[in-house]
């Protein structure tokens, strides 16, 4: 299950970049492209398991956004959505392997808890 290592990397990244503020994080948003082979439900399960063992993360939430696969047609000079893993331009029928979006996996947003004044 590579989701556990992904979740561990997420927390390592949060710790590295936010250090003392990591306990104040309310929500982490992760963006994953369809080609990254990330299953949102498995990431959520791994996340839930991880925070169970780390009490200071108990209130943190995870949101996983999944991006469609977008390729670029050099012939039409247009981007198109890849459907059913057919990397063929909708307009001209030219095959394309130039991926613009869909293989990414990154932390796209970190939301901190509001401090009471």
TrEMBL record:
<dbReference type="GO" id="GO:0016151">
    <property type="term" value="F:nickel cation binding"/>
</dbReference>
<keyword id="KW-0479">Metal-binding</keyword>
<dbReference type="Pfam" id="PF01155">
    <property type="entry name" value="HypA"/>
</dbReference>
<keyword id="KW-0862">Zinc</keyword>
<dbReference type="GO" id="GO:0051604">
    <property type="term" value="P:protein maturation"/>
</dbReference>
<keyword id="KW-0533">Nickel</keyword>
<dbReference type="GO" id="GO:0008270">
    <property type="term" value="F:zinc ion binding"/>
</dbReference>
<protein>
    <submittedName>
        <fullName>Hydrogenase nickel incorporation protein HypA/HybF</fullName>
    </submittedName>
</protein>
<dbReference type="InterPro" id="IPR000688">
    <property type="entry name" value="HypA/HybF"/>
</dbReference>
């Amino acid at each position: 299950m590579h989701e556990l290592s992904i979740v561990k990397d997420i927390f390592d990244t949060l710790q590295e970049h936010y250090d003392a503020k990591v306990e104040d994080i309310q929500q982490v948003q992760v963006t994953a492209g369809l080609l990254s082979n990330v299953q949102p439900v498995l990431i959520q399960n791994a996340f839930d398991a991880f925070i169970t063992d780390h009490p200071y993360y108990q209130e943190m939430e995870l949101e996983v956004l999944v991006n469609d696969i977008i390729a670029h047609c050099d012939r039409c000079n247009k981007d198109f959505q890849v459907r059913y893993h057919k990397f063929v331009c909708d307009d001209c029928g030219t095959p394309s392997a130039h991926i613009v979006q869909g293989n990414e996996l990154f932390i796209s947003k970190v939301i901190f808890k509001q401090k009471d004044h």
